Amino acid sequence: MNIVVSDKTKEMLVQYLTTLGLSIFAAVGFYLQSGNMYQLGLFMISLSIYHLLEYLFVLLHHFKDIKFDSFLINQGKHYTFAMTFSFCEYFYEYMFYPGLKDNSATFLFVIIGGILVIIGHFFRASAEFTAKSNFTHHISYRKKQTHELITHGVYSFSRHPGYFGWFLWSVSTQIMITNPVC
Questions:
Q1: Which residue has the higher pLDDT, 68 or 19?
Q2: Which InterPro entries does the record cross-reference, listed alphabetically (predicted)?
Q3: Could you tell me if residue 16 is inside a domain?
Q4: Do 121 and 169 contact (CB within 8 A), yes or no?
């Protein structure tokens, strides 16, 4: 397979991957620092892993459809608002109500939220990599001839494991960083 990729596409891809890589680097820094910013580090690590896994899935199973939106960073205004509000809430509480982020109960929320985040990642990734080309990021209005109903793997006990995994991941990230509003 010989695929021609423009220089502009290569440049944008490098920018996206560099940004996500730097996000992981910063996240590890937040996680390792003393104090309670480790929650923010865990959140940023989880967020970066989510976007990289989405891109990896498209790269492996829908290569002809790959584009920068495959990272799912630009999911829409609602996603952008939710992520922005999540960061704003975290920093507001960190600065003005530090007790919300640093007490004995907080650690329990971090552990429970972290476990649920991992389970959410598992369901989402399992759904994508089990269904392979039958799973897409776009709603289909007509059945493709190549489409088949997947009933094995994670689909044997959940009809929509991708949606379930994303829902569990998104809610659990807020539990993990103890954001009571989000």
A1: 19
A2: ICMT_MeTrfase
A3: yes
A4: yes
33 alpha-carbon distance from chain centroid: 23
Domain containing 149: what range?
A: 7-176
In whole angstroms, what is the distance from residue 37 CA to residue 5 CA?
A: 40
DSSP notation for 133-144: GG--SS--SS--
Task: Please check whether residue 182 lies inside any domain of the structure.
Answer: no
Q: Give Cα 101 distance to the centre of its chain.
A: 22
Measured between alpha carbons, how far is residue 10 from residues 53, 59, 67, 68, 130 in Å? 19, 14, 11, 10, 29
> How much is the pTM?
0.81
Report yes or no: 93 and 82 within 8 Å, Cβ to Cβ: no
HSE (CB half, 13 Å, CA atoms) of 52?
Answer: 15
Q: Are 156 and 130 in contact (CB under 8 A)?
A: no
Whether the predicted pLDDT of 30 surpasses 80: no
Q: Does some domain include residue 181?
A: no
